[in-house]
Structure prediction request, 125 residues.
Amino acid sequence: MSLKVGDIITFERTFTVRDVELFTEISGDEGSHHMTPDEQGRLVIQGLLTATLPTKVGGNHNVLARTMNFEFLRPVFTGDTIICDVKIEKYERQEKNRISIMASFLCENQIGKEVLRGEFEGVIL
Prediction:
């Protein structure tokens, strides 16, 4: 799929306890808030696990990231469904058949509260 400036790509994911367990094993991020359920039985999702949403969109389009900026706005819990909109801000052909890309993103939970925003830039080979 060819991208162009202004395109918005949306990805949605509901996080589970198993997601937190697997990410804890891989990352070593064993903060007690990721291991001990709150009064509603939920775990707090690791911030970088939440950040896999915009990186998934980049991966789907073979983006080799050079820089990424994340602003974590509020916690995400197991059972939350996060909707991530990635907007293509720059898409330019470079030498050697590379494409320079820059995108911004905004992730919201199922009740419309912003949880994560930022941007990334890189190249598509």
